[in-house]
Amino acid sequence: MSTFDSLSTPAAEQRRGPAADAPQAAPTRRNTELAMLAFAVVIPMLAYANVGLAMDGTLPGGMLGYSLGMGALALIAHLVMRRFAPYADPLLLPLATLLNGLGVVMIWRLDKAGGLLVPNYPAATNQLMWSGLGVALFVGVAILLKDHRILQRYTYISMAVSLVLLVAPVFFPSRDEDFGAKIWIRIGSFSIQPGEFAKIILTIFFAGFLMVKRDALALASRRFMGLYLPRGRDLGPIIVIWLLSLLILIFENDLGTSFLFFGLFVVMLYVATERTSWIIFGLVLSIGGATVVASTASHVKIRINSWLDPMAAFQEPPPKGTSEQIGQTLMSLGSGGTTGTGLGQGRSWLIQFAAKSDFILGSFGEELGLTGLMAIFMLYALIVQRGLRTAIAARDPFGKLLAVGLSSAFALQVFVVAGGVTGLIPLTGMTMPFLAQGGSSLLANWALIAVLLKISDTARRPAAEPAAAIPEPNRGGTVS
Amino acid sequence: MNKPIRRVAIFCMVLILALMVRVNWVQGVQAAAWASNEHNKRNQYDRYAHPRGNIIVGGQPITRSDFVNGLRYKYKRGWNDAEMYAPITGYSSQAFGNSQLESLEDGLLSGSDSRLFFRNTLDMLTGEQRQGGDVVTTIDPKAQKAAFDGLAGKKGAAVAIDPRTGAILALVSAPSYDPGKFAGTGAEDTKAYNDYLKNPDKPMANRALRETYPPGSTFKLVTAAAAFENNVYKNVDDQTQTPNPYILPNTRTELKNESDTEPCENATVKVGMDYSCNTVFGKIGAELGKDKMRTQAEKFGFNDDKVDVPIRATASVFPKGSDQAGTALDSIGQHDTRATPLQMAMVASAIANNGTLMQPYLVAQERASNLEVISNHTEKQYGQAISPATAQKLQQLMESVVQNGTGKKAKIPGLTVGGKTGTAQHGQDNSGLPYAWFVSYAKGADNKMVAVAVVVEDGAAQRNEISGGSLAAPIARSVMEAVLTK
Q: Residues B39-65: what's their mean pLDDT?
């Protein structure tokens, strides 16, 4: 199972056991990060130029300012890493920067479709601002969170906060274009998607809770029908979480979030206890819950039907509650084909208002083609795998659990959104991390990357150094 | 905890892998199906993303592509002399699709035709803008204009054919419509389109090809052809033993002529034709019987629902199952006989061309935007409708009608003209105003010829045989003149 090691230099990062010390004077690999960041800034820059040339025949006016802005953001993040997390993983920050940059370019390109895509127009400027705030949050976390283990203290507060966040949208009206999903908190014109933040905060709670309970859950079990089942008192919180995710599903019409939380919990439970029976138990529970809800709740039925027959909405007259979006997205993808139409030359605005947000993958698929989507999935896969590497490398159980939780939450979200958009699974209401338009999503995911980087910094820091010590300057980094 | 973490890592990879497989499926395997899906509006936009090829008449394009640079559509279709050419070009509307040639030749015009693939690929590599190919029609602009002007303010249609080749020289339907008024997607386009649809005069109907009318007395040409082919009569001057009035077989109904003053009793075939005697030709039809009559009609193209020019014409009808009395009426172009103007032009062209009926066609040539020829029409024989001898006799009859009979208005100095008038009753108890028909041909110097059929709806205030001659014949005459005189 050395697949995850293929991305690190073999010399510096020999596989090691969880308790093994890192070799002395390990390279910080900040320079690698810098080189990668240069790519991550240049690629969206070229994409931006490409859109301008394709659509107007000239380089876009904001070329210089935009490039400098993106470059400056990336550079600030990088310098903060050098100073506050020198041993952190070198790939995560460039990956996030690249995805974020591509997302902004695509949103700007869709803005140029102008009146064809009202409402939420223009959105690129906002997205750029949120990217700035996201990086600021990233920097804030990197500086203020001295050590990720501090988060353990907030286990139960996290639980309370995430519950509040998750329940809040019930009290806010949903709009037509959310198809009955209540995933927003709205105050005036300002709105946030609490689910995005709850993802991280809940992971902190799970990690803290499971770290304390893992022995009880793993050892004190009785055999039942060939499965190891835990005692009732340890089972309680799990059932509560399961019920909670079902309630979210029922009252907020948010399939995606409930699936995400339940999946996240099962994965973390499995990692904490190392018992396969938890996975089976989790699967049975989730399938049971999903079946009950799917057969009773009408909006879930609608989603399943439109997954089975995406073109149903194109009938005359369209059946009630159906939406053309998935059919439009599939036609977008199909029209893009293998190599895509080229940036700025597709017509993904046919997907209508969600072309920049939930369905931005359709826009990418049409303009960059299958090739581009494969590359984008690859970038996501890399983020997930670097996160899981961090979990392997972390030397404390809380850090391990937190890293696994954050990475698999990220992976599940990517799967649920991309799967929904491409018609692999029924559509749920979440957005593509980093790519899609939306402030909440950007902020939350930048924070997630920051926490992962802090964990990996601690994990790769040579053991001789105390946790919060400042590294010696001029440590030779190797550019690979 | 590392072992489960590794397993989770594998699980996450499987998730991403599933996504990759899925997009490969959608964008690779199914791509073409999604791209060509009927609901995929991109095909609609692509059609107007570059200049569309043109439809050519007399060496000049009668269509344009206007660069409008909209968000959805870059180009918009425009037409010159739109109303005159509408029954040929049809429309090419961003909102309402395409019809007629714009639809049938859409692959070539829009540049998606596989025969243009090599050129398109070259254009793509050299960065040239893609351009659709042109469709060169057989229409003679002078003839088309003559027919259009002649039908101005009337309802009706005119078709002119070159009997030697089958080339359609004029094809007019009136009243017509302006496809340019709804070529776009705006509210005014929708309104124009709906107004046309709601208009009781049916301006968007292609009367020349897609409407059938009772052909009335013009059908007597077919009846006379059947009589000669079946040796009922040998010569045009043979006496017909026809009573006046003629009692329809097995009924007490009298079949009358226009007026009692006409010399129809026991008339010769020629006199019968000159005066358009119903009694003479009703009796011939009844005695030949429905099958022989139908066989002859089908040789001229009746009952064929696949006459594609390439626009598919509606099948003209000679009924299968009439009784003897019905057949008598069918044989004078009433009852259940119906014909398109194109069909009657085909009858005239077969007679003019010594019995050989050529397949009528409208598209002479398809060519790429660089004028490179992609395909040329090859003339095809539809069939030998009648023997050359019969054709000669019918020519004598038709020329006599123009010289001495009901078709005097079609005379053209210096040309040999043959014709036949018709006035077709229609409606409940023939309550509608009759249709005025004129079917004719003209021969000029160096064997040039043209066959024309004209129908004018509701044109005749007087219900007599004169109407075909007075309303439709002048139009036919001006078309024939336009074709044959410099």
A: 86
